[in-house]
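Take a minute with the sequence and C-alpha cells given here and flag any C-alpha cell that looks odd. Thanks in advance.
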Amino acid sequence: MIKTKADFLDSHRRMHKRIFMFGEELESYIDHPMVQPSLNAVAMTYELALDPAHAELLTAESSLSGKPINRFTHLHQSTRDLVDKIKMQRLLGQCTACCFQRCVGMDSFNALDVITFQMDQELGSSYNQRFRKYLAQVQGENLVVDGAMTDPKGNRKLSPSQQADPDLHLRIVNEDEQGITIRGAKMHQTGAISAHEILVMPTRSLSDKEKDYAVACAVPADADGIIYVYGRQASDTRKLEGGKIDVGNYHFGGHEALIIFQDVFVPWERVFMSREYQYAGSLVELFAAHHRTSYGGCKPGVGDVLIGAVQAIARIQGTDHASHIQDKLVEMVHLNETLYACGLAASYEGNPSESGTYRIDYLLANITKLNVTRFPYEIARIAQDIAGGLLVTMPSEKDFNHPEVGPLLKKYLVGSHEYPTEWRQRLLRLIENLTIGAGSIGYLVESMHGAGSPMAQRIMLARLANMETKESYALKIAGLSETN
C-alpha cells in the first residue's frame, strides 16, 4: 500500500510509461524538472493523510472493506463525507497552491458507482460488482486514478458517428471472450502522468448509432498502446533554468497531457460499461455535478494563497494601510468565500442514491462551477492591480545573482526597508505564477473550462431551475391563477 511520498515515487519508478515532451520521448520522468512539481503536489495527498492534524479530513472508513482509506478513493456515504471532501480540497489548495490531481478520479468513482448500480438493476448486468471489486483494489493500494472523459471531438457540429475520422471519440474497436480493445484519445488530462490507473468514461450523451462510444473501463497507466504527450503551460520552461525564484511556485505544480490509446486491450473485469449508450448521458451529468462542486474546494484554497501573497506584497510595498487596498483585499475574500460557500451548500444538500453512494445537489453544483468561471479571474485582476507593474517587468533571478548588477537591483527594487528585496521578488513571482504563469492554468483556465465551460452550466441551470414552480409561487401571492 502506498502511504508516504517515498512510496508514491517508488511506485512510479516501477512503471514504464511512454511520455513525449518537446518532441522527445522521456527516458525517465520521475526526476524530470517539468514533472517533479506535479508529483510533489500529488504526494501531499499522502503526506497530509499521515499528519494527525489532518488525518480526519484525508481519510475515511471504506464502505467496501470497513478499513481506513485515503478519502480520494472513497465512496461518499453521507453529506458529511461530501462536506469533508470540500474541506479537504481547500486544505490541499492552501498547501500546494496548485491542482493536486486526484479529484477527477474521486469524482469518477462516485458517479460510476451510482450509474453502474442503476444499470445492474435495470439490465441484470454485473457492472457494479466489477466496479466495486476494482475500487476495493484501488483503495487497498491507495492508487492515483486519472478520470479520462474529454474526447478530442473533431467537428463539434457532428456527432461521434458522423465524424470523418471515427477515432475522434474513444470507442470500442474489438471484442472477444477475454475483453475489449479501445482506440482514441482523451484530452486535457490533468495529472495523467502522476496516475497509476486511467479510468475511461464517455464524454457525452449518445444515440443507438453510437454504441461503440459508450465505454467505461480502467486500464493501468502504463498499459501497452498508451502514449502521453505533455501539454505546454505558460512560462513552463522556467522549470528548466535551475533557479527557484522565477518559477514562482518551485515545489508544486500541475500538468495536463493528451493520452492516446492505440488499440489498448481491456479485460472484462475492468469494463464497467460496454455499449449501454442509454446510460452515457447520466454518467456524464453525475460526474460533472460532483466535479463542478469540487471546484468550490480547491479554487478557494488556491485563492487563500493568492490573497495572502497580495496582503504580504502590499505590506512590503507600503500600501497595506491605504483604504482602497484594504477594500480590494476584502473584495477578494468575499469572492473567495462565496465559492467555498457554494461548494458547501451543494454538499449539504446532497442525497443518497439507490447504491448507497451520495449524490451532490445538481443545481447547486452547477451554480458553484458557474461562479468559479468568473470569480477567480476577478480575484486575479485585483491581485495584479495591487501588485503593480513590477509584476511583469522584474529582472530575472540570474540578474539578481550577478556580482555587479545584483547589488544594484537589490538597492533599487527594495520596498519597505524592513524587508529584504528578495521577499518582494519571491512574492511577485508567486502572484505572477498564479495569475499569468504556469499556476494560472490550474487557477484560471481550468476554472473556465474544467468540468465543462460556462454554457454547459447554464444549460443545466435552465433544465434544473423549475421555473414553472417559481411562477406558481408568484401567481399565488399575487392572487392570480391560470384560469383568471
Q: What stands out?
A: The chain has a mean pLDDT of 97. The radius of gyration is 24 Å. The first helix runs from residue 5 to 13.
